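Let's sit down with a protein and look at its sequence and fold side by side. We need material for that, and I hope you will provide a protein of your own picking. Once you have written the record down, we can walk along the chain together.

***
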Amino acid sequence: MRTVLSRPDFRLLFGGLLASMTAESILLLALAVWVKDLTGSDGLAGATIFVVLAPRMLAPLVGWFVDRYPRRPCFVVTNLATALLLTPLLAVRDAADLWLIYAVAAAYGLSNLTVGAVLSRLVRELVPPDLLGEANGALQTARQGLRLIGPLAGAGLYVALGGWPLAVVGMAGFLVAAVVVGAPRATTRAPGPSAVLPADGVGHRPRWASELLAGLRHLVGEPALRRALLGYGLGSLVMGFTESLIFAYVDRGLGREPAFVGVLFTVQGIGGLVGGLLSATVLRRVGELGALAVGVALFGPAALLLAYPNLWLGLAAVLMAGLSLPLALVGLHTLIQRRTPPELLGRVAAAAEAAVRCPQAFSIGLGALVVALLDYRLVFASVGLATLLAGNYLWRGRHLSPPPGPPTGPRVPAQRRASEQRQTEVDARTRTPDALRHS
């Protein structure tokens, strides 16, 4: 991690992202707590996360847009727009204004998808291929480390001062990110609109529908990416249940106030910080698909522990869940960056995000209904078993993305090397002094 952070261009990007990730970590959980406080409903609180993830369905359009325009200006404009989109939160007063929170959450989800697609291109352009895992690990370490203070700070800020300070903090974070990354020192060589791939050998531009779906076609056609998205997508299909279940766990299981969810998310941040620090090492040992498999599989025992309402078991469970997340994301993001042509990376990154997050959004929406109909403990146990199966499926395909080994020269068969050595020795004995003088 120290190697990639020594690069000035990446360090500048990292600093800007710290500001936006701080705002993100404070806002996301606090919005759900705000909804819970206004309505008293676990389902509506969990649905806030669903609303954030729902814009992932627009991933092909977002990826197409990102691939057509320079990445740094796109990043700056998106962060400025996000700051502006948070202003309606200042008008929320009671449950009648719930639609404003949901509208802001949807707009924030769309901007978050855009920033994610832009970020994949920026990292790929600023970092050499052998440092991609380290760069993604550094970003995930920062993101997960912010969970140590962000969710708890957001929930505490809401309890102490109400909802409007959340909007102010969020706007400040996104504005700082735009200023830092937009500084003149940040340089990226980004192709303009002409970078869209041609449809044939004579330079004709493809139809717009073909452009939009190019990223999805690449994901389906590349074996390692296809397996990654199938396995992680299936895991996400049940992981989303936990967004609503965690409120039921705190309320019905532990008998605590909704704001205590912030404590659990802070503990999850500790696990995430450790996972981020370990992610580059794990990736070097088992490859991208292997790291993704370990991350998904670790979520299984975490969910199984949450099936029994006990504070200490719950803390251990969220710690393990935090450890799993950066391992999975670093494996997935690095695999995408290494297996995708630069001119397609925005569309592929956005399509991959949609392929993973849309099942998760669906399960969050379904979880908001399930938590009202079924015992949350039974659902946690089901999530644990399903994610263990998904992790096993990914692990069995890890040969598709073997870990990078040390650079080596061309391999020479042992038998051939031995014969060449014997011939060299014979030549040396038979050479005459005259031959040596003329050689």
